[in-house]
Amino acid sequence: MFEGQRSQPEDSGDTFIQIRVEDPSGSYQEHGADVSKPLKDLVNDPSDYLDRICKRLDMPITGVGNYKKVAKYYNFDMYTIYYFEESPGGPSEALISAITAKYPEVTVSMFARAVAKQTSRWDVVDLLMDFDRK
User: Fold this and answer.
1) 112 backbone dihedrals φ, ψ, rounded to 5°
2) How would you label 101-134 residue by residue, b for 16+ Cβ within 10 Å and e otherwise?
3) What is the mean pLDDT of the chain?
4) What is the model's pTM?
5) For the chain, give me the number of helices (H) and strands (E)?
6) pLDDT per residue as tens digits for the range 35-81
7) Quick one: 2 and 57 in the same domain?
8) Which domain holds residue 71?
9) Are residues 80 and 114 in the same domain?
10) Tally of structural domains, the chain
11) CA 63, CA 46: separation in Å to the nearest integer?
12) Are 42 and 80 part of one and the same domain?
């Protein structure tokens, strides 16, 4: 595996993100997230991470999913998804806020895995993981 490469084990259905970092001696160390921030930390963070993540997840791109697939994964019905679309802050921001209210135990890492599995939006996953490490 190279730095930041993603793999999906056969028959598992789970997506794993594995990061290998070269240390000063030239050897590689694998890093994984044993502890992840609660997703509500993203909502309450003063940085621009939430805005950057939401703008990307809101954008429809051919061949990959967007916030709608993530909303369905978290069991939001079509009426609620429509409400997200009409939200002043945008659908992804409304979705993330709703997830933190409905599922307060969801962490940034758990949300990143859901985004990866449901949308294949690695740009969003990368931003989520960057936020989780900061």
Assistant:
1) -60, -40
2) eeeeebbbbebbbbbbbbbbbeebbbbbbebbee
3) 83
4) 0.73
5) 7, 4
6) 899 999 999 999 999 999 999 999 989 999 999 999 999 999 999 99
7) no
8) 35-133
9) yes
10) 2
11) 32
12) yes
